[in-house]
Fold this protein.
Amino acid sequence: MTADRKEKLINSFKERFGMNPDIISRGPGRVNLIGEHTDYNQGFVLPVAIDRDIAIVSKVRDDRIVRLYSLDFNIEVEFPLDNIVYDEDNKWSNYPKGVARILQEEGYNLRGMDGVITGNVPQGAGLSSSAAFEVAMAMNFEKLSGLEIDPVKMALLSQKAENKFVGVNCGIMDQFISRMGKKDHALLLDCRNLEFDLVPFVLEDVKLVVCNTNKTRGLMDSEYNARRRECERGVKLLEEYLPGIESLRDVELKDFMKCKYHLPEVTEKRCRYVIKENDRVLESVEALEEDEDLIRFGELMNQSHIGLRDDYEVSCPELDAMVEIAWKTEGVIGSRMTGAGFGGCTVTIVTDDAFDVLVENVKNEYPKRTGLKPEIFVFSAEDGAGTIDI
Ligand code: GLA
């Protein structure tokens, strides 16, 4: 967190509440390098935490009231820890409320607080601003209430807040990387048992570029849930031929090829994508870790996009245009959509030398093809959530 941003946040707390705050907590957004729509299929993902976060400066209160001011939206909400209700009008307040509710249901004794929130994770762009908010909030409650919450458990409880209170049926990837990310590392997560490995991800002579399509993600929730259901249906149908499988994670490609004829066409495509994507994640880690073969990794990213576009069908013309512009740029190692899809961002690895040309190509071609203005970010792998004493 830059000194400027920290100072601004602390000053706005002092102005608003007329006191000195105790702590700042922060939860970062993420970029998923590869392993899309695999988390809810008990598969593998490989995200990095980024240098964009939701930050909350706060001071503990003697009573059980939570009062939060959003610097970015200029709205204040107040709720009692003993009576937490969903707010239709103030949607953002449901993130802190959800976290408070779930932590308490889990038996944690929370204390009230006054807080000011600010964020610089682009919203609705598929970079997990929601997970960042939930994790930042959970970190804040943990510290101010003098608790110790196991980090993996915190990720799970933050996900539960989103599933059960906010009402979005997401997997575990976003909250996990926001809590557990590590500088200069990507995180290989096995979403079946939450075992993870940190994979060195130092960008030498290349850049990690994220391009926002600025396409509003219209049907995302319903389509996301539909994909989940299709995968579940696939598992049910495949079980007859592959007894003992619990998820697509348990299905090997060679076995799938033998019994795929029993599946309806759409279900077959969805399952094929997930099974192949899991293999691609593991191969990516091998390419990065053992062979230091970024070229292979880039090819796997490209294949992942093709699968998401043609088989899983969660891309859109804007994401495809952005990826195609990158693919055509010499010096681009790999490019794909990242996150749930239907808009949001792409992730691209490009050599330092080719970066300026990529930016130029995106700025020139993307608006012509889509009528939208792109945004371009350069990120690196950063640490997961944390707190700072003031
Ligand atoms: C969203 C969800 C994640 C994951 C991705 C797709 O970001 O929150 O759990 O399913 O989509 O990979």
